[in-house]
Amino acid sequence: MMAKFDHPNVMKLLGVSISESRTLLIIMPFMHNGNLLSYLRNNRADLTVENENMTETIEEMAAYLLSICLQIARGMEYLASNQFVHRDLAARNCMIDLNHVIKVADFGLSEEIYARNYFRQADMQESGEGPVKLPVKWMALESLNDGVFSEKSDVWSFGVTCWEVFSLGRNPYPGVDPFSLMRYLDGGERLDKPQNTACSQEIYCIMSECWDSEPWKRPTFSELVTVISASLQDMAGYLDLTCPSVRADL
């Protein structure tokens, strides 16, 4: 199915190959700027505006970071329209090409380097090949409690991904153990507003709507694209988003 994907904000599958050891290899375009999580962390100093009086600079940074979220939402809107559920949307699974276009990628192909963000639950593995890695800090309540995945569970993950963007690559739920997260969320707790001058209350509200305990109350990706686009257009000096490529002058 991946071979049929054709959207500027979704990673394209170029081909597959089988190695001599009979390992399946997936061939995708080279992403010059790596994954979004590393990009945010490596450029954290340049993306941080510490002086709250620099209103114009803060607006420009908010627009840039929100434009990243918009590109991810557009990619996810396309996947949802094709009845594809990602299940592992996160900043680490979004890639950035040479022109700074964001590509939703890594459809279940997460790297071991991020294993600390997962917990292992052997009793969920039906194939008997070993424990399953679950990205619990990005998962919706219904996914954690009942193993249910849908567009609306991807929307929850999108909210966490937006939180990563505006926290400039910090780990979600700091101090909360993965095994305690289900109880934490069931108790009504959610991620706090990122400590970033570029994250307004309006932007945080967009994230929060993605974390409603009732899946049907969460927005669709089409609705998120509309809301985020409108928010960007309301910003003074917002970036031109007529095409999906939005580049920051870092």
Task: Give the gist of this structure.
By secondary structure, the protein is mainly alpha-helical. It has helices at 36-42, 44-47, 55-81, 141-146, 151-166, 181-186, 201-209, 221-234, and strands spanning 15-18, 24-27, 94-96, 102-104, 119-121, 132-134.
Structural topology:
Blueprint: E1 15-18, E2 24-27, H1 36-42, H2 44-47, H3 55-81, E3 94-96, E4 102-104, E5 119-121, E6 132-134, H4 141-146, H5 151-166, H6 181-186, H7 201-209, H8 221-234
Antiparallel strand pairs: 1-2, 3-4, 5-6
Helix pairs in contact: 3-5, 3-8, 5-7
Note the overall shape: globular
Radius of gyration equals: 18 Å
What percent of residues adopt helix (DSSP H or I)? 25-40%
- DSSP helical segment count: 8
Strand-and-helix sequence, N→C?
EEHHHEEEEHHHHH
Q: State mean pLDDT (0 to 100 scale).
A: 84
Strand content: 5-15%
Give, in spatial order, the strands making up the sheet with the most strands.
1-2
The CATH homologous superfamily is termed Transferase(Phosphotransferase) domain 1
**Biggest beta sheet attributes:** 2 strands, antiparallel
Q: End-to-end distance, in Å?
A: 36 Å
Looking at CATH, which topology would you report? Transferase(Phosphotransferase), domain 1
- CATH architectural designation: Orthogonal Bundle
* DSSP strand count: 6
Q: Structural class, judged by helices and strands?
A: mainly alpha
Number of domains: 1
Assembly level: single chain
- Poorly predicted runs are 109-115, 119-127, 238-250
User: What is the CATH domain class?
Assistant: Mainly Alpha
